[in-house]
Design a protein that fits this description.
Layout: E1 3-10, E2 16-23, E3 31-36, H1 50-58, E4 63-66, H2 85-99, E5 104-110, H3 113-120, E6 127-133, H4 139-145, H5 149-154, E7 159-166, H6 172-179, E8 186-195, H7 196-200, H8 205-218
Parallel strand pairs: 3-4, 3-5, 5-6, 6-7, 7-8
Antiparallel strand pairs: 1-2, 2-4
Length: about 220
Amino acid sequence: MTTRERCTIECPNGIKLDGSVFKPEKKNDTIGVVLVHPYSVLGGCQALMRGIARNLSDHGYPALIFDMRGVGKSTGRASLTGFSEVNDVISACKWLSTTLSLPRILLVGSSAGAPIAGSAVDQVEEVAGYVSLGYPFGLTASILFGRHHKAILQSPKPKLFVMGTRDGFTSVKQLENKLKSAAGRVETHLIEGASHFQMEGAGYDAEMTNLITKFISSL
């Protein structure tokens, strides 16, 4: 049975993040998952990641969700480009790894949380892999998040990009073109007919969980 515990993650700059850790009855001792929620400025919060986190825990993987700065009970102020939030992700990864004595972390980012998480991947030694759910590679979204692209595309760590074929922010062609230059092991999984916000909905939680657990077992 999964238990959920509230937690506070302290960042080096004095910001405190409100989070929840989902712990499985029989814990996998080698890897935990940190999930990064969609764009704070548009109402993104940890609650959007709760279904996937609970499912992952039911599969035996400890999972951490948290509100980035300026969201919910977390202190600080949200930034437009998500660069300040990269430090929140780094702190969350280190907290989960240290608190539960986990040598490896899988980092999962949803929507705008994907570029933010991508910028943190190579800054945390324990991060063993990365999953993006609806990375906003499109031209308009790139005005805000374009400066994050390089970090994840150049990372040698294994990565999986999941996207709906009807994503309004990124076309399948844009995704494919971006990933041509990516280093290391890169996988993509397209969900036929799904739009960007549809894929964020609870109806896709089970499918997202299956893709993530399959990716973990391949690491």
